[in-house]
Write a structure and sequence with these properties.
Blueprint lengths: L3 E5 L1 H10 L6 E6 L10 H9 L9 E6 L1 H9 L4 H13 L14 H16 L3 H5 L4 E10 L10 H15 L8 E7 L20 E5 L5 H8 L9 E2 L8 E4 L19 E5 L27 E6 L1 H4 L11 H6 L3 H14 L1 H12 L7 E3 L1
Parallel strand pairs: 1-11, 2-3, 2-9, 3-4, 5-6, 9-10
Antiparallel strand pairs: 1-10, 4-5, 4-8, 7-8
Amino acid sequence: MQALQIYAGAAARAHIAKNGLQPSDIGVIPGAAGGPKGLILGPLDRFIFGEWFAQSSQPVDLVGASIGAWRMATACLNDPASAFERLEQDYIHQHYELAPGQKHPSADFVSEKFGESLQFFYGGRLPEVLQHPRYRLHILTSRGRGLLGREGAARTPAGYLGAFLTNAVRRNAMGAWLERVVFSSETGPGGSAAALPFGTLDYRTRQVRLGEANFMPALQASCSIPFVLRAVHDIPGAPKGAYWDGGITDYHLHLDYSARAGAGIVLYPHFQKAVVPGWFDKGLKWRHRATGFLSHVVLLAPSPEWVKTLPNGKLPDRTDFSRYGNDLAGRVRAWQAAADASRQIAEEWALWLRQGCPPGDVLPL
């Protein structure tokens, strides 16, 4: 394999060595925050949800934050392969025109345009998402507490400074500033929220039932990067307050999946090996190590050497908006080239499966 690297936790590696890997083994799929980096996962998403899972029928929990929540909600649409194609094209071609001398669009403008995009993408199709016969969707958001309970010109920067400093001392202590709120689809029409496929003793957590009244605001909140988009306030059915990007509390969904080991293997298409717990942990390298939470995880990631062959020698990311400015055509070419190249990742994964899942190709996570 040149583009793909496969990693697995201890329990997952033992399972592959003994049984290989079948679509019926999968119980959970996480989708990480990471903005444009998620573009390289499009071919994998199309293969997994459009072809591979067609060979099985078991329920699967889809857990997502930010772009990962958008991806997981897209997987619930009819004809998911086509839906992922549309998501890729919509994401690549998004554009926020800058006025002369302007370095960044306003948060109000980005929030308005993004809300319109979600309405255009999912409008009239919510029953497909919320009543999927197999997939149980869990959208992660970060709800502000204390100073962050409401958005404000002074209180928001002060609150996030407090959250940053608190997190540096101890991750779960950041729960005094921000709590994890998970919006979960129903177990059946009019039923309760589906059980979470991970333990919640690691961090302050609430769960809310996901329905038509709160789907759009919950998904927009999960993608609302502080200072780039506005917070979403008072989501229907949820505790009052300001809701931001789910990646703040759970950047790469380093969740306690092993607490729900009976749920099956966790298949994690990701854009790197490290599963970073929270947004503020990006610079705290000692928190990038795998833990027992990930014992049942099979993680699919691009090879760092392959990434260097992409435009600009890196994955697409949010800095490209500044790099290209109003040069929409230039950014579209770079992002489309990266998305096209990532077909190799999906092809190598499909080949590994056809070859009987050789355990020697699986690296320790």
